[in-house]
Give the backbone structure.
Amino acid sequence: MNYLQVEGGDQGYMSNTRETARFSPDPAPREPEELPSYLGDVFETLGSMVNSPTRNFAPMNSAPPKPTTGDIAFADGIAWDPGSGRGLYYFDTGAWVKI
């Protein structure tokens, strides 16, 4: 079974915490006849992550390394303040812009 790996050690399909969810699939089966079921589980899990109507951005205390245009991050406003204090920012053309 596939799980969402949550920073801090919790596992499950949905996180009740404000932590960042990470997808961590089980190893692929060795038997070819088990592959369709395995892939179905993987796609179901990925679909539930992608199609979720809610996104959570945990406050960050440092800038993300190597941001690219379109990245979104929540600055804590203390240890990491991109310029306008605590809040949600997106990265555009080399700078963080508060939303």
Remarks:
- Residues 3-50 form one domain.
- Confidence is low (pLDDT under 50) at residues 1-18.
- The CA atoms of residues 20 and 53 lie 15 Å apart.
- The two ends are 37 Å apart (CA to CA).
